[in-house]
Amino acid sequence: MGTWSKMLAAAVLVLGNAGVHAALDVGEVAPQFTAQAALAGTVIRYSLAEQLQKGPVVLYFFPLAFSADCSIEANKFAEAIEDYRALGASVIGVSRDDIETQKKFSVSECRGKFAVAADVDQSIMKSYDAVLFFRSEYANRVSFVISPQGKVIYHFKSLNPAKHVENTLRALKSWREFGMVR
């Protein structure tokens, strides 16, 4: 096997395993944070602890506001927001974008349905080990479902935005159905 083939095989192995592990596993305590966020173009103070008092939270990280896949994912979360609310859950998106960018993104891509936090210093994404391994200045596309008790009940990592909404909704429904308290 030539050098190029070996490098390609190694890259496929690494990328193929990229979605297998998230630093926070099911049952672990989710790191608390407070951040500047935007909801429908308005800047708010978002506190995970305060939001968890109201019910479970779907926390999703995305690499860059207004990139094609991040816009698709935000649209999917916005379209499903009533399904999340019916399960007593809220949604928060997080990226390294500044608050001015998040204000615009919250209006156009999130359709004013849920907040997006500005994690300019990457402290939130680092605490969740949600940094994109091959471009550390960006968040990886990873979603967490956090119980009101502050524990991770589900996580999903994939750069493909297609399954994040479907999988987090399924996890919430399962958690509700089986009365899991983790």
Write structural notes for this entry.
This protein is globular. Strand 4, helix 5 and strand 5 form a beta-alpha-beta unit. Helix content is 36%, strand content 21%. The protein has a seven-stranded mixed β-sheet with strand order 2-1-5-4-3-6-7. By secondary structure, the protein is an alpha/beta fold. The chain has a single domain, classed as Glutaredoxin. The protein contains seven helices and seven strands, in the order αββαβααβαβαββα.
Q: Got a strand count?
A: 7
Order of helices and strands: HEEHEHHEHEHEEH
| Principal-axes shape call | globular
Q: Please identify which CATH superfamily we are dealing with.
A: Glutaredoxin
CATH architecture descriptor:
3-Layer(aba) Sandwich
Q: What composes the largest sheet?
A: 7 strands, mixed
How many discrete domains?
Answer: 1
Coarse structural class: alpha/beta
CATH class wording? Alpha Beta
Q: Report Rg.
A: 16 Å
Question: Can you describe this structure in just a few lines?
Answer:
With 182 residues, the chain is an alpha/beta fold.
